[in-house]
Design brief:
mainly alpha; 11 helices; 62% helix; 331 residues
Length: 331
């Protein structure tokens, strides 16, 4: 390097001042190395940080929506609120592609799928029973639409090669938003006396019977998981079963709480109010179970717990109370 500043070249001047940016210089390699290190750290942190920011189990037992008009359905309004919360206010990681951190989540997607299944069951009963007059009318078009939208698979992203290799497809979220719109239209029409909501004991009985069958299926899934994997410290499917059931219990506890408001006159007339409250409480208690790690241990073990059996207790108790209410309504 030229010692005289007056005789040095511009490149020599930059190097003297610490600007080591020439190709092949140590400074250039050092900057590139730090850049690669930063990129590597960001890539390593991308999934865990993204998963932490995305993951949210919305199991607030006091979740509710504003009171509706007397002619409208409080339970339908609640269903709209749940869809809005889970799809618009939260992420929907069930259909995230591999390059999004939600793809690596497990518990939240299963919890949301359980909620979705409960909403689909409720909407199905609206279309088949509650939302139509006794044997003298067809199904409500908005309820039929909502039922179709909520039966859409939960894992469809905007691109589905099974449908088309090049054209975008309807995502799960878009279908559930459409269901929310159909339910909202139905409830608005209900408030204008342009739709049907039959508050009859037989409609309520049928709805409770179908929900009881769903809880029975959930209980059977627990039995099967315990029979096949009980006693293992590592059971990667146990948390899937647990959180799906948790989502169902949670959604049903809220829907039946507000359905009790819709059918309050029938429930009070039959003297089923106390049992109804206990049934909703059983579902809410089961939905609040939230162990840090789901363990499928031996049911009789002293050290190794079995969280599925604990959940199964609340499932069966709620189902028994549903059957008790059905018996009361028949009288």
């Amino acid at each position: 390097m030229t010692s005289d500043p007056l005789l040095e070249t511009p490149d020599e001047a930059r190097e003297r001042k610490g600007w080591r940016l020439l190709p092949g210089t140590p400074g250039k390699r050092r900057i590139a190395g730090w850049g690669l290190l930063v990129i590597l750290v960001l890539l390593i942190a991308y999934y865990p940080i993204g998963m932490a920011l995305t993951n949210k189990i919305n199991d607030d037992p006091n979740f509710s929506v504003a009171k509706v008009q007397e002619e409208q359905s409080q339970a339908v309004a609640l269903a709209i609120g749940i869809i809005d919360r889970e799809v618009n206010q939260s992420a929907w990681p069930s259909n995230d592609p591999f390059f999004m951190p939600g793809w690596a989540l497990d518990n939240m997607p299963n919890f949301q799928r359980g909620i979705k299944e409960a909403l689909a069951r409720f909407t199905n009963e609206l279309a088949d029973q509650i939302g139509r007059s006794r044997g003298s009318s067809g199904s409500d078009p908005d309820l039929m639409s909502a039922r179709g939208y909520l039966n859409y698979p939960p894992d469809i992203w905007i691109w589905n090669p099974k449908v088309s290799w090049w054209a975008p497809t309807a995502s799960s979220e878009s279908q559930y938003r459409a269901a929310m719109h159909s339910l909202s239209t139905y409830n608005d029409r209900l408030g204008r006396d342009q739709a049907t909501f039959e508050r009859r004991a037989d409609n309520l009985m049928t709805t409770l019977d179908r929900i009881g069958k769903d809880l029975g299926a959930a209980s059977n899934n627990i039995d099967r998981e315990i029979d096949e994997f009980s006693g293992r410290w590592v059971d990667f499917n146990a948390d899937d079963v647990f959180y799906f059931n948790k989502g169902q219990l949670y959604a049903y506890s809220l829907l039946l709480r507000d359905l009790g408001t819709d059918f309050q006159s029938v429930i009070d007339e039959k003297g089923a109010a106390t049992v109804w409250q206990r049934m909703v409480a059983s579902m809410a208690e089961g939905a609040l179970l939230s162990p840090l790690i789901i363990i499928n241990g031996e049911p009789s073990a002293m050290v190794q717990p079995n969280h599925l059996t604990a959940q199964g207790f609340y499932l069966l108790r709620a189902r028994t109370q549903l059957e008790e209410i059905t018996d009361i309504l028949q009288k």
